[in-house]
Design brief:
By secondary structure, this protein is α/β, with parallel strands linked by helices. Helix content is 38%, strand content 20%. The protein is built from ten helices and nine strands.
Length: 281
């Protein structure tokens, strides 16, 4: 498995594979890989002849007071995970390789990016759309794989690919959880043992909401109330948002009549964690 840091190297390699008639799967990441990423790489390897993983902590998707500087990095461990899961190439560019000094083009979207995480992270999705478009141009793969934990990001990327006629199939993959239910995330490393325990409230409150829906509660303000009440009982938790939205438009709904995304973002201490489930009618 090669690790390339130049755009031209990756582009040439992928083009060569395509010329040879090989299919290419792509897993874009910011590194510090965990079993969630590993599941994406394994799925890509099972569906394609070749797999590219990008590892790039993208500065444009971090807000001014966010964790860009301290975002965890471990290329050595990441390489082992990639090789073990069936990747053929890692693209690991420096910031200067990805963004020319006078870059003045970005990809922006309206609507889907406004709610949920977009409310408290107003520049985040423009950074994501811009870097993902650039990565798709650098790695002209057949399929790209993203986790459903970032449900809003997945919906946005699917729409962006449709809107901009980008020739790639977007595959969403299920959330991978720790045994006790905490969704795997590179940011879990920030949690102290006490915070790690407190963080279980995210998944626990979602489970309570799912049970209530299954028992017939369809009014979303009642459902959100159940989640909020439970999280507020956890002293280390501070809610950023709890939302129930249409799973395609990501618009808030009052009653559950179509498939919905039940999503939340909660600070545990200083660490912002997200989790969700989709309820299919
Ligand atoms: O989900 C992530 O890790 C990032 O947002 C992505 C898609 C790699 C873009 O930087």
């Amino acid at each position: 498995m090669n690790i390339y840091n130049k755009v031209s190297q990756v582009r040439n390699q992928v083009k060569e594979w395509k010329r040879a008639g090989l299919s290419v799967g792509f897993v874009p990441t910011m590194g510090y890989l965990h079993e969630g990423h590993e599941s994406l790489i394994r799925k890509a390897a099972s569906e394609n002849d070749k797999v590219v993983v990008s590892i790039f902590v993208n500065p444009t998707q971090f807000g001014p007071n966010e964790d860009l500087e301290k975002y965890p990095r471990d290329l050595k461990k990441d390489s082992l995970i990639c090789a073990g899961a069936g990747a053929d190439l890692i693209f690991h560019p420096e910031i200067e390789e990805m963004y020319v000094k006078d870059a003045c083009t970005s990809v922006n979207m309206n609507g889907l990016t406004d709610g949920l995480c977009g409310k408290s992270r107003p520049t985040h999705f423009s950074g994501v759309c811009t870097v993902v478009t650039k990565l798709f141009n650098i790695v002209p793969a057949d399929k790209a794989y993203f986790g459903e934990k970032d449900a809003q990001q997945l919906a946005i990327i699917k729409k962006m690919v449709e809107d901009l006629n980008i020739d790639i199939q977007i595959i969403g993959c299920p959330i991978i959880r720790e045994e006790d239910g905490l969704a795997k995330s590179s940011r879990n490393i920030y949690l102290s043992p006490v915070e790690r325990e407190a963080a279980l409230v995210l998944n626990k409150s979602l489970k309570v909401a799912r049970k209530a829906i299954e028992a017939g509660v369809k009014n979303t303000s009642d459902l959100k109330g159940l989640i909020v009440d439970m999280i507020e009982k956890e002293p280390l938790a501070k809610i950023d948002y709890v939302e129930i939205v249409d799973s395609r438009s990501l618009k808030e709904v009052d009653f559950i009549e179509e498939n919905v995304l039940v999503a939340l973002a909660v600070y545990i201490g200083k660490t912002r964690l997200i989790d969700n489930f989709t309820y299919f009618i």
